[in-house]
Amino acid sequence: MPDWAWTAVSVAIVLVVAAIVVRLSHLFVNHLERRLVDEGGAELTEDARQRAKTLATVARGTITIIVLFTAVLVALSEAGVAVGPMLAAAGIVGIALGFGAQTLVKDWIGGFFILIERQFDVGDWVEVADVGGTVEEVNLRSTVLRGLDGVRHVVSNGQIQLSSNHTRGYSRYVFVMPIPYDADIDRAVEVLRSVGEDMRADPAFAGSVTGPIEVLGVDQYGESSVDIKAYIETAAGKHWRVGRELRRRLKLALDAEGIAIPFPHREVILRPAADAADT
Predict the structure, then answer these.
(1) 217: left (phi > 0), else alpha (psi -120 to 50), else beta?
(2) Less crowded by CB within 10 Å, the N or C end of the chain?
(3) Closest C-alpha among 235, 233, 220, 238 to residue 177
(4) φ, ψ (nearest 5 deg) of residue 229
(5) Are 200 and 233 in contact (CB under 8 A)?
(6) What pLDDT was estimated at residue 122?
(7) Residue 1 clears pLDDT 60, i.e. is over it
(8) How many CB atoms lie within 10 A of CB 257?
(9) Quick one: 185 exposed, middle or buried, by C-beta within 10 A (0-12, 13-18, 19+)?
């Protein structure tokens, strides 16, 4: 058999092996994706399914590029082509492209870890890169948030150094209740706890309030009040709604007990004109 025939056979074998490796790797990634979805069962959200699909797509694409690049180099080497200079040239081009695309690569890497670590999901309320809002999209390059005022924020994943998720697992509404200095603090705390229990018993809030009010104690002595700090635990993302209703009910309950919500007072002393002239 002539040399060119052996070369053709060698190249064909390399390409066939590369195709088999790509196929097997894709089957393995697909198996992991199905296993992840099956283990989640009916409780797995659509966003979690989409995240698993995105990660699988990224993994398949990365493996395909690496295997095909390696196969092409081996095939060229078998064909007698000097791949050393090509690799050197590719390295120089790669460095140039790397400097130009380092921000994009940083975004992709950040997005990959956001997805794989499940830092937040679509529908979560988060704060990232000095903006906050409901997550509308999460992809490899960017994260899209919708603010309370309706503004749509697109944040590059490479800019996300810290993400604060307000709706993961459970939430807490932390608040300070000001009490007048001449009021009975223990009685005010009893009223506060009673309001919390009433909300837990209310069918409209029973699913949102997950625990009694925890009174942390006197937080500080204010200018015109004794400030009592407390919090109430709620279902994820329900703390704002619960907090607004809690403050409304607490105001009504304190009014019924004759405990006024304090506000700053100023005492103004008017001196007679004669006294002012003497000074």
Answers:
(1) left
(2) C
(3) 220
(4) -100, 140
(5) no
(6) 80
(7) no
(8) 15
(9) middle
Average pLDDT over residues 77-97: 62
Tell me the C-alpha distance between 125 and 134, whole Å.
4
CA 271 to chain centre: 60
Q: Which amino acid does the sequence have at 113? A: F
**pLDDT for the residue 137:** 83
Q: What is the pLDDT of residue 245?
A: 95
CB 170 within 8 A of CB 237: no
- pLDDT tens, position by position, 154-209: 999 888 989 999 888 889 999 999 999 989 999 999 999 999 999 999 999 988 99
Phi and psi at residue 44, to the nearest 5°: -70, 125
**CB neighbour class for 232 (10 Å; exposed up to 12, middle 13-18, buried from 19):** buried
Residue 60 banded pLDDT, cuts 50, 70, 90:
confident
Note the pLDDT tens digit of each residue in 211-262: 899 999 999 998 889 999 999 999 988 999 999 999 999 999 999 999 888 8
The span from the first CA to the last CA of the chain, in angstroms, equals 124
The type of residue at 93 is: V
H or E segment at 174? Answer: strand 170-179
List, in order of start, the domains of the chain with CATH numbers: 3-117 (1.10.287.1260), 125-165 (2.30.30.60), 170-256 (3.30.70.100)
Residues near 213 by beta carbon (within 8 Å), at least 6 away in sequence? 192, 193, 195, 196, 230, 231, 232
- Edge-to-edge strands, sheet with 214-221: 170-179, 226-235, 214-221
